[in-house]
Amino acid sequence: MKRLQHVSLFTRIAVGNAFVIAFGAIFGTLLTRHFSDILDGWLIGLFAGMGISLSLLVNFLILDAALRPLRELRKLAEKISHGDKLQLELLKNPDADTVSLASALRSLVNQLGDRNQELHALSGRAINAQEEERKSIARSLHDDTGQALTMLIISLDQLETRLSEQQQDLKDDIQQLRTLAANTLTELRRIVFGLRPAILDDLGLVPAIRWYARSNLEPAGLKVEVQAPEPMPDLPPEVCISLFRISQEAVNNILRHAAANLVHIVLSLQPGSISLQVRDDGRGFNQQAASQDALSRHHLGLLGLRERVELLGGQMSLVSAPGQGTSLEVHLPLSGTMDNNEEDPHPAG
Question: What was the pLDDT predicted at 312?
Answer without folding.
Answer: 87
